Amino acid sequence: GDAWKLKDHPKLPKGKTVAVIVLDGWGEAKPNEYNAISVAETPVMDSLKQGAPEHWRLIKAHGNAVGLPTEDDMGNSEVGHNALGAGRIFAQGAKLVDLALASGKIYDGEGFKYVQECFEKGTLHLIGLVSDGGVHSRLDQLLLLLKGAAERGAKRIRVHALTDGRDVLDGSSVGFMETLENDLAKLREQGVDARVASGGGRMYVTMDRYENDWDVVKRGWDAQVLGEAPHHFKDPVEAIKKLRQEPNTSDQYLAPFVIVDDNGKPVGPILDGDAVVTFNFRADRMVMLAKALEYEDFDKFDRVRVPKIHYAGMLQYDGELKLPNKYLVSPPEIDRTSGEYLVRNGVRTFACSETVKFGHVTFFWNGNRSGYFDEKLEEYVEIPSDSGITFNVKPKMKALEIAERTRDAILSHKFDQVRVNIPNSDMVGHTGDIKATIEACKAADDGVKMILEAIEQVGGIFLVTADHGNAEDMVKRNKKGEPLLDKNGNIQILTSHTLEPVPIAIGGPGLLPGVRFRTDLPTGGLANVAATFMNLHGFEAPSDYEPTLIEVVDN
Ligand code: 3PG
Ligand code: CO
Known about the structure:
binds cobalt (II) ion, 2 domains, binds 3-phosphoglyceric acid, alpha/beta, Alkaline Phosphatase, subunit A, 17 strands
């Protein structure tokens, strides 16, 4: 209806092909040997930066600018793509859970009550990522929830812990597990039978995304639900320390284990009558497990035994699928996204990435919503990712394939917006392999080149930006910014994202000569980008969107 109608931009024309390119994990920092982007050969991104200052600038991609609780929170792809697509800043999962725990409202909701119904006779299982990364979950939230559940009648609690090393330093899982164990011990002193029941590294156990590799979820299911895993331990801290000694492993890739009692029996399989809470607030890497736990019809792997449980997510992970049906905290209501507006104004849209980032330019971009707004006007293309490898082995990933499909989409003249995520600098950056990350950055730059050439051919416009930093800083630093050394004098590799700003560049033959970045928005961030590309499509953004980054001067 009319509510969707966008006003025409007073100066900018319609009908140009606009390429919106998101480099994942590509921040801006001073050149140095740990800045993989500065070391890499990236002529295209370099030339955009060295080109006209009125067409290149930096924008904020972390903390409050993307709805995170504090300015110490690094950016991430979920909140980054939400902000890019929605054009406004929403209080995000991390913050909403903080508020619900602080006020105690989390315990008054339907979700907690549903879970609580099992406390009398069953066990409460908590499954999620145990770290203080703040991207998918936070340990302090888990500890509060444990305490709150115990105070409200949970007598038997089992934690199924996934180790991180991706949003936090590798090796830090030992300390997080000690903190968790400490709190569980306090609960035991108070007469609550509270223990860790299973564990495993997040990239190998449970936390796959976008259906890249169901084996990952199955490994978790076997340990968490069936109580079956290749490794048995009596103590979870011991488990992590031992398993970390295996060759070619790390916190991210730790093998699955179960905790057993003195008779060798697993202490916490999930049984009929139990309650389960997945305590991650971020959706992408919980959706697959949520489906396995909730769906009656399920054929992705053999679940062997499907316990009758009361299951709730920390949040509802997919509003369209209503998955899961029960949840402790209501997710941010990210409505009226740019994707929906543009499609309802006739903008034919193409979106593309490879599997591991596909949902970023579709699901997250569209406000955590799966599917099309209008099938006739949209095409979303997923290039299958390599699975079962760490991406430092193939740092080029599918950048070339993504760029080729996008080039073809541009040259077909069937689309007004083509939107892509090029994953390399992020996915390889997360492995901590600096050499491979340098190759990854080059591959991403090659991808940009191909897309910009196609835009050149059709007289279109490009907007290149990133969702958060990662590859521009691969070393942990002290407050003065100096690289930190470990006990053995080696530098501490930074696998996580950063607090750095990201570049944004516009250009292409279709860009009117008078278009330039405004200078009155020095603190602009990712949420300002949607209004910007809506302008490039010839529309004014809705009035409650964060302001556009561009202005049109008459020359
Ligand atoms: C992941 O899920 O891989 C990391 O925790 C965050 O990376 P992303 O926000 O770039 O997806
Ligand atoms: Co990342």
